[in-house]
Design brief:
Length: about 425
């Protein structure tokens, strides 16, 4: 059977497609802005047909209505990364969180977490019957490979990001055509604090460096201060609109990369339509699975690799909490540790943890001890630099006493005296 005949035979309504989901199934949903929102809406509308369906994904960018209390008996969310729409369900016991380094998530689908159903969004097929997973390849490609049943929303608004994002029409069991805008992530508001942090981070980025940037106001602020740099490159789990601006300005060329020179290497994308149009059929942009992009041994092959991530708290030993406030899970490890370790093993590489010094001026983020129950995301052995709006603290190769002094110097002035008192008590010497 040729692919066109297969496509016609497997084309159906969304209602018919979600009827293939069975109670007790594990359903893996495409990541972030690659989420097939239309299919999820129809699945939730059919909730009475299910019992204990497990919904697995990382960041949910859509409504995540399956997390609502009224669907507690129908769906149970299992998150690799907790977001705003899933946080309450997990905190209130209606959902679960599974700790995992991002680069190891695909491995779970062939071992500890076998996939019953993958729900994805793809481009229309090309002349060879191949569809692109567009903005979400990461773990999504492996979910398609491992699933017993694949339900795909075919959306002509999804950008084409081949060649490593491709799946055959014949890998899709239920094909649903539905055109809709891809979920967009609007640029964050960047204030004076973020700008100060961005400028400090940018001072650690040499010409020709390869960058990994997280998400949010701080990474975007860093980009503001890189406009005078030359021949920067991108090897990152994701990037957003700010990278497009620097690429169009000739700052990001990827020319000096020692791995995949000339190419943007990325696992998923989150941004506006400007970003999606930039990557669409762009041969210089390569979306690949996260077990390649985020593998520390792959990352380390980029010389002068600079990793920039944000965090919630840092204690005076240099332990970093990035995913929980005390025992409450608020996000996940994502690719932070993948890139911290990859950058540390890179020739000339560094990793940077960046954060405002306080929570709205009221609570210091540099603390004597992490909050009770907080998860240590990045160990004190892994951290190179901590950055706040007050400067840069170098930790790698520093004693505990030196680390504490360096961190106190970049803490908010309102909290330095109490941190100094802790320093003198802990180290038996004057500050």
């Amino acid at each position: 059977m040729n692919w066109k005949e297969y496509y016609k035979q497997h084309l159906m309504s969304a209602e018919d497609a979600v009827n293939h989901i069975q109670s007790g199934n594990r359903v893996v949903v495409a990541h972030a802005c690659g989420e097939p929102s239309y299919l999820l809406d129809v699945m939730v509308a059919n909730a009475k047909a299910y019992k204990d369906v497990e919904i697995v994904h990382m960041v949910a960018m859509g409504k995540a209505e399956y997390c609502k209390p009224e669907y507690a008996g129908n769906f149970r969310h299992n998150a690799f990364f907790v977001g705003g729409t899933s946080r309450d369900a997990i905190a209130e016991g209606r959902g679960d969180f599974t700790p995992s380094f991002f680069f190891e998530v695909p491995r779970q689908f062939s071992s500890t977490m076998p996939v019953d159903v993958a729900m994805v969004m793809v481009t229309p097929p090309d002349e060879n019957g191949m569809c692109s997973l567009g903005v979400s390849v990461d773990y999504t490609l492996e979910a398609v490979k491992q699933a017993k049943l694949v339900i795909a929303q075919v959306n002509p608004q999804m950008p084409w990001t081949g060649p490593y994002s491709l799946v055959s029409v014949k890998d899709l069991d239920c094909i649903v055509e539905h055109e809709a805008p891809i979920i967009e992530l609007k640029p964050p508001k960047i204030g004076d604090i973020e700008k100060a942090i961005g400028e400090h981070c940018a001072s650690l980025v040499p010409d020709g460096a390869t960058l990994q940037l997280g998400i949010g106001a701080i990474p975007d602020a860093v980009l503001l201060f890189l406009k005078h740099k030359k021949d920067l490159g991108i090897h990152s789990e994701m990037f957003s609109d700010g990278v497009v601006e620097l690429a169009e300005a000739g700052v990001i060329t990827n020319a000096k990369k020692t791995l995949h020179p000339g190419k943007f290497e990325v696992a998923f994308l989150m941004g506006t339509r400007r970003l999606y149009d930039f990557v669409d059929h762009n041969p210089d942009v390569e979306l690949r699975p996260v077990d390649y992009v985020n593998n520390p041994f792959v990352i380390a092959q980029n010389e002068n690799m600079v990793s920039i991530n944000s965090c919630v708290q840092v204690d005076l030993m240099g332990q970093v909490a990035s995913e929980s406030i005390g025992p409450k899970q608020i996000s996940g490890v994502g690719g932070q540790v993948d890139f911290v370790r990859g950058a540390s093993a890179s020739k000339g590489g560094v990793s940077i943890m960046a954060m405002p010094s306080t929570v709205k001026g009221k609570i210091s983020k540099i603390v004597p001890l992490l909050d009770e129950g907080a998860a240590v995301t990045t160990s004190r052995n892994d951290v190179d630099y901590i950055v706040t709006e007050y400067g840069v603290a170098a930790l790698k190769g520093q004693t505990l006493r030196q680390r504490a002094r360096n961190l106190i110097e970049i803490a908010h002035p309102d909290f330095r005296d109490e941190l100094k008192a802790e320093y003198e008590k802990r180290f038996h010497c004057k500050y």
